[in-house]
Amino acid sequence: MALLLKNAHVVDPSVELDGVVDVLIDSDKIAEVGENLAVEGAEVRDLSGKYLVPGLVDMHVHLREPGYEVKEDIESGTRAAAKGGFTGVCAMPNTDPVTDNGTVVEFVKSRAAEVGHCRVYPSGAMTRGLKGEAMSEMGDMVAHGAVAFTDDGRGVQGAGMLRRCMDYGKMFGKVFMSHCQDEDLVGHGQINEGKVSTRLALEGWPAAGEELQIARDIEIAKLTGAKLHIQHISTAHGLEIVRAGKAAGVQVTCEATPHHMFLTENDLDETYNTSLKVNPPLRTEEDAEAIRQGVIDGTVDAIVTDHAPHTPWEKAREFELAPFGMIGLETSLSLVLTELVNTGKMSMGRMVELMAIKPREILGLDQVQVKAGSVADLTVFDPSATWTVGEDGYESRAENSGFAGRTLTGRATDVFVGGKQTLADGCIC
Ligand code: DOR
Ligand code: ZN
Q1: Ligand 2 centroid to residue 110 C-alpha, Å
Q2: Closest atom of ligand 1 relative to the 179 alpha carbon
Q3: 392 assigned to active site
Q4: Would you list the DSSP string of 126-182?
Q5: Does 21 contact ligand 1 (Cβ within 6 A)?
Q6: 395 contacts 415 by C-beta, under 8 angstroms
Q7: Is the CB of 274 within 6 Å of ligand 1?
Q8: Residues 76-105: what's their mean pLDDT?
Q9: Whose CA is closest to 56, among 382, 263, 332?
Q10: Pick from 217, 14, 204: which is nearest to 126 by CA?
Q11: Is residue 271 a contact partner of residue 244, using CB atoms and an 8 Å limit?
């Protein structure tokens, strides 16, 4: 039966929509968009007061399956994604076995089709076993549906290795996504190197450890002509380097996480909260402000979560022994609305570009547009719903949110993936 979504405020800059219109969904597609639609026989849902946008995509998510299902699996990770308003996620390849060949890509895809609450776009490793020593089976992975290459969790340490991966792999037309971290310079760095690391007696992870590889990778993208995407950028200077690369015509894009925008090293204190241990680390207030500005002015292309679930017992270890990462799927949209949109710093249209349009463009996915004929991947949210992070637990198997206890305004209520509802009134379908 056709479904008529009435009275939502629809925002989709790709079709210059920003106003109240009705949207008719028929099977997996949008059948009609217009004012005061009346369709005989259609089920009607009133979405007055809510926003409806093209389905959000998070292009940086760790679903942990295969291998680390104790932290998260494809079912629980995509459930968290649906709860957060996402219609699709790009899964990172640091699984066990590593997603470095077509068989593992096929497993992730088929598992997602079986148990997923949203679309899963698998990425494949650049190097075998993420070891940085030999190229992965890039062609095989693309043939099985990999949308991007990345050694996320690690940077490719050898410049020559990165060059070979890009030179060979660019024929597949996919983007190379770089986690930038010079391991020799960063060593066992735990948090941003500076006053806070000194005060807390934790080894420092210097900004230059990230910036060096951002600069290097942009040079290698220029050399090879490959498409480069800088992951979870965290420093003001790193952003300057990307800005310069873009201005020079290099095919480079970048992403930022809510935690690098809305948390800083100053949130770390003598309680040694390991949920705040992330890689790259939380930086200074100046860095966070520069990232927020970059998001607003277009230097940052996409907002991603780097959703990195870990078990409570892993995160209960001493700070130095706890793994890096925090979950983010269930808070990302709400944080962006609360901190950037509701405060008037950024438009709703820009949010849609950062969280729906650009991620699809960078990953080479078909765009979703709020117009007749488009696939019905849609996100609906209540801009005034107020809630407290963690109060009602999480859909994710993990609980390592760095935002626990924060009160946010704005939350996803309904999600449609190919016309099929995955979230209804805030509940997983
Ligand atoms: O904080 C992080 N956690 N950063 C990464 O790059 C990897 C991720 C993980 O896999 O836990
Ligand atoms: Zn990473």
Answers
A1: 25
A2: 6
A3: no
A4: SBGGG-SSSB--HHHHHHTT--EEE-TTS----HHHHHHHHHHHGGGTPEEEE----
A5: no
A6: no
A7: no
A8: 98
A9: 332
A10: 217
A11: no
> What is the number of the ligand 1 atom nearest to the C-alpha of 310?
11
How many residues appear in the chain?
429
- Kindly report the protein residue whose alpha carbon is nearest to atom 7 of ligand 1: 153
Look up residue 23 and give its two tokens.
Answer: 């949207």
Report the separation in Å between the CA atom of 245 and the middle of ligand 1, taken as the mean of its atom positions.
Answer: 25
The single residue of 100, 301, 306, 377 carrying the catalytic annotation is 306
Q: Rounded to the nearest 5 degrees, what angle is found at the Cα of 225, between the Cα atoms of 221 and 226?
A: 65
Condensed to tens digits (0 to 9), the pLDDT of residues 373-421 reads 999 999 999 999 999 999 999 999 999 999 999 999 999 999 999 999 9
**Quick one: average pLDDT of 99-124?**
98
φ and ψ of 145, to 5 deg? 110, 10
324 Cβ below 6 A of ligand 1 = yes
Verify whether ligand 1 is closer than 6 Å to residue 395 (CB atom).
no
Radius of gyration (Cα) for the chain, nearest Å? 21
Give the distance (Å) from ligand 2 centre to CA of residue 306.
7
Q: Point out the ligand 1 atom lying closest to the alpha carbon of residue 324.
A: 1
Q: Would you place residue 67 in the very low, low, confident or very high pLDDT band (cuts 50, 70, 90)?
A: very high
Rounded Cα distance, 27 and 177, in Å: 35
Full strand arrangement of the beta sheet holding 252-256: 148-150, 175-178, 228-230, 252-256, 302-303
What string of H, E and C letters represents the secondary structure of 304-329? Answer: CCCECCCCHHHHCCCCCCCCCCCCCC
What's the confidence (pLDDT) of residue 1? 83
Percent of the chain with pLDDT over 70: 100
Distance 211 CA to ligand 1 centre (A): 18
Q: Residues marked as binding for Zn(2+)?
A: 60, 62, 152, 179, 232, 306
d(CA 309, CA 328): 9
**Per-residue pLDDT, 150:** 98
| Chain segment 7-23, per-residue pLDDT in tens | 999 999 999 999 999 99
In the chain, the domains with their CATH numbers are 53-363 (3.20.20.140)
